[in-house]
Amino acid sequence: MRKSEIHAAESVSCLNKALNELKDIWEEIGIPEDQRLQRTDAVHMHIKKLLDMMIAEEECLKKRLLSSIETCRKEVASLCNELQVQEYQEEDGLTMLQLEKDLRTQVKMMLKEKSARQSELKSLIQHDQDLCDILCDDLFPIHAERVPSQQQLQNYRQHINTRNQEKERRHAEFVEMKRQITVLMEDLEQHPDTSFEKDAVCEDEDAFCLSVENLSSLKVLLHQLDSRKAESEALCVSIRGRIAELWEMLQIPEEERERESLMQNTHTSTKSRLNALQAALQRLEELKKKSIERVIHTIRSEIVKFWEKCYYSPEQRQAFTPYHSDDLDEEVLREHELELERLKQDYAEHSELYDAISTWSSNWTLYQELEKKATDPSRFNNRGGNLLKEEKQRVDLQKSLPKLEKSLKAQIDQWEATHCKEFHGNGQPFLQYVEDQWNRHHMEKEREKQERQMKKIKQTEEDLLYGTIIRTPTKRRLAGTPTPGKARKLTSRMCSSTPNTTLRSICSSPSLRPPLSSSKLCARTPARGRTPRGLERNKENISHLSGALHTMAASPQINYSITSVASSYSEFAKDSESTAA
């Protein structure tokens, strides 16, 4: 049983006890029955009225609770909708008081959450407004009067963080560009003209609007200033080059050049340096007009140098008629300057081709010199190993020249494809010139070979006629060279193995016989005369030799072994190796 029921039973018991006590009192007093009835009715009325009043109060309380519950339910539903959260689920089995209390507590919590979100939203909107004023951007798309959801607040916070980072980046970019613009303006001695330039350079950094358009305009301004500086510096370089040319033309002393250079370097800004260089150039131009004849001769010498570098033919040189003019005025000077500038530009554009031609020419000249040395018999008297070095260098050039000519042909083909005309060097197609040089070289070698053969034939005739002994150079014996005795034995074997009888008679010439005494040698000297019999025998030998030599000239396929001086280092080495074997 509940305590409330126990209390109700006790109340009924108290009421019955009170009525019994009243009844006893009424008995003692002797109140009549009708009065007792009246008094009992009065007690009943009082008790009934009190209980009715209490019941009414409790009913009123119940109504208030129900009204409060309904109101709280509506508020909770409304707040759930505003806060964009799930609907509140009431617990089952709760009394009115518990339900009303839970609902009131939920309403208070949701109102607190709503207030917190609205406060944060207001703060974020204010911060966003400040950033938008600086960055000149639009506000974050959110309704200021509505309660934002947690996801909306999270997105807003991320947006603010991104805006802050963008602000820092733009501010750093603006500060760097402002510094560069200030430096360039000072270097160019330029002052801010427009209101935008004044705002960017002169105003406070925090007051400048960091919009995309402003930063783009700053980049354009920075690029313009960079271009002006680059143009000024390029103009300075061009003027310096022109000043150097005028110094050479006018033959300005070195002391004056150094003094002028020091004066130009004292200027700190590009604008002041450019003004100083322009003033110096103007002075030199005026001085050039006063000494125009000397300047033209100086330019002509430069033109000749570039003609030689570019391999101009005499016809091409004659085509520039002002070079041969005697009327030296400003117009002629101008034409000479234009021609020199054109030659410099032509050489600069095709410097690789001209350098390659120069390399080929120098290598070709060296190769021809080494070829001439290789046919000189006196080279064997040279000491110090130069012979081997020259031979190695000649072989290297013989291998490298065709490769260089192949590379030259590719460059010339490219040049001809670009200019749609044939490339000439010294007045003729250069490739044809190279081919003619090789043909001339081969013809010269063939001519020298024939001269050596004729010389050998003539020497052999003189040996048979006058008895002269043919000896190889014995200035310095090479490694592996046999002794004279061995050489005589080797020569005898070679002569004996030769099938030709005429050559056998040649090999058994006086050069292989023991040396004669001085009296006999003097008796055989052509100056003292010969005996008819000896002269007749020599004439007979000469006739046999002439027939044999004619046979050798007509039949080059036959191998003849005649000991003679080698015509080249390679032949000399082969002869030495064969002799040693």
TrEMBL record:
Per UniProt, what is one Pfam family of this protein? MAP65_ASE1
Record's protein name: Protein regulator of cytokinesis 1-like
GO CC annotations?
Answer: cytoplasm; mitotic spindle midzone
Q: Segment Disordered: which positions?
A: 509-534
Where is the sequence biased in composition, kind Low complexity? 509-519
Query: What does the record give under GO molecular function?
Result: microtubule binding
Does the entry feature the keyword Magnesium, yes or no? no
Q: Which domain of life is it from?
A: Eukaryota
State which gene encodes it: LOC107680116
Q: Name one GO biological process term.
A: mitotic spindle midzone assembly
Q: Which ranges of the sequence are coiled-coil?
A: 267-294
**PANTHER family in the cross-refs:** PROTEIN REGULATOR OF CYTOKINESIS 1, PROTEIN REGULATOR OF CYTOKINESIS 1 PRC1-RELATED
Which keywords are on file for this protein?
Coiled coil
Q: Write the lineage as a comma-separated list.
A: Eukaryota, Metazoa, Chordata, Craniata, Vertebrata
